[in-house]
Request: fold
Amino acid sequence: MNLPNKITVARIMLIPFFLIVMLVPFGWGSIRIGGEVLPIAHLVGALIFIVASTTDWIDGYYARKYGLVTNLGKFLDPLADKLLVSAALIVLVELGFAPAWMVIIIISREFAVTGLRLVLAGEGEVVAANMLGKIKTWTQIIAIAALLLHNLPFSLIAFPFADLALWVAVIFTVWSGWDYFAKNKHAFARSK
Reply:
């Protein structure tokens, strides 16, 4: 397994640590920033999430720079993104920070695209993420990080950045899903 794929696997392995920090009541207390109270667990969880998300860029950079792009990496990288984002979104619903319907739309798109990828992989075709899919992933990451941080620093000026970012993430999620299926409709034509 090459370095980019190891980095991708490390991203997957950070997910249980994120879940434990966010869901187990350790009683670490909280900090006050302006008028916002931020539990230390949410700060630590946000940092774990941000570090894990950053590995998405790092593994892709190394894979492209050193010619280490593999079919395993093309499969694992988007899977790692989907697992991390899905886990974080479910935590946000559990904590009451994100509407369930928005999370259902995002996760449904992720399952649908993963299913199509599996169908295509069964036919020997591995499809790497396109630019719209990458934008979708980063809008989701930004929205999740903002929600985990209780909209700080934007809450200090009463600007609902986290809520707006989640809306943008949903829009890009639907758009990129539509685009992905439109560009791979040949998979449906062959299955008839």
Notes: The CA atoms of residues 82 and 135 lie 14 Å apart.
